[in-house]
Amino acid sequence: MIQRALSYDRTPPLSVPLRFFLSAPIFLFAAALLLLWEGPLALLSRWTPATLALTHLLTLGFLSMAMIGALLQILPVVADIQLPYPQATARFVHALLAAGTILLACAFWHSYPLLFRLALLCLVPAFLWLLTACFIGMQRRPKLKSKAAGTVGAIRLAVIALVITVLLGAALASTFAWPHALPMLLLTDLHVLWGLSGWVGLLVIGVAFQVVPMFQITALYPVDITRVLAGTLFLLLILWSVEAMLESQWNTVALSGMILSGFIVFAGITLYLLARRKNPKLDASTLFWSTAMASLFVCAVVWLTQTASGHKAYALTLGVLFIVGFAGSLINGMLYRIVPFLLWYHAQNEAGAGIKQMPNVRQLLPEQAAIRQFRMHLLALLLLIGATLLPEVLARPAALAMCISSGWLYLNLLNAVRMHTAAKRNRISTFVSA
Question: What is the mean pLDDT of residues 133-151?
Answer without folding.
Answer: 74
